[in-house]
Amino acid sequence: MKFIIGGAYQGKIGAAMKLFGLNESDITNGSTCDLEDVFSAKCIKSYHKIIARLLAQGVSPIEFTKRLCLENKDTVIIMDEIGCGIVPVEQAERKRREETGRCGCIISAASDTVIRVICGIPVYLKGNKNED
After folding, report:
1. pLDDT tens digits, one per residue of 63-98
2. What one-character-per-residue DSSP string does the chain give?
3. How far apart are CA 61 and CA 99, in angstroms?
4. Which of 2, 3, 19, 92 lies 20 to 30 Å from 103 when distance is taken between CA atoms?
5. What does the longest C-alpha to C-alpha distance in the chain come to?
6. pTM (global) more than 0.90
7. pLDDT at 70
8. What's the Cα-to-Cα distance from 116 to each of 1, 6, 8, 10, 48, rounded to whole Å?
9. Residue 132: its pLDDT value, please?
10. Spatial distance between the Cα atoms of 92 and 84, rounded to a whole number of angstroms
11. Residue 122 CA, distance from chain mean position
């Protein structure tokens, strides 16, 4: 499993395509996909949106993420970092932020490669580019 994180609009998708030889057709959109599709997806973008969708449905993002890590070990997961900045006032937003962070920890533990993309530059946090 490969995990790419970073702020919004930092070039995560472009980095994933370049580093892992992906095409746009390989990428499943977490904002709109059928949630079962992620278990066979080659690449999942906007995983933080999946977490928000799960919470809205009353489904545990933690359990969903654990299942994903067991069932789709070859996927590339792309997720926005949402834990920086001002802590939200609304409890539901704090919960979403916390669950997103916890899911990120689960994914990074299961991944052989973790990359943070800043201004389009991939920074390897786990693994190295020679292994990809």
Report:
1. 999 999 999 999 999 999 987 777 778 888 889 999
2. -EEEEESTTSSHHHHHHHHHT--GGGEEETTTS-GGGGGT-SEEE-HHHHHHHHHHHT--HHHHHHHHHHH-TT-EEEEE---SSSPPSSHHHHHHHHHHHHHHHHHHHH-SEEEEEETTEEEEEES-GGG-
3. 7
4. 19
5. 43
6. yes
7. 98
8. 15, 5, 12, 10, 15
9. 57
10. 17
11. 15
Find out whether 107 and 79 touch, Cβ atoms under 8 Å: yes
Token pair for residue 97? 């932020």
Look over the chain and give the mean of its residue pLDDT values, rounded to a whole number: 94
Amino acid at 26: D
Query: What whole-number distance in Å separates Cα of residue 108 and Cα of residue 106?
Result: 6
Q: Which residue type, as a one-letter code, is found at position 8?
A: A
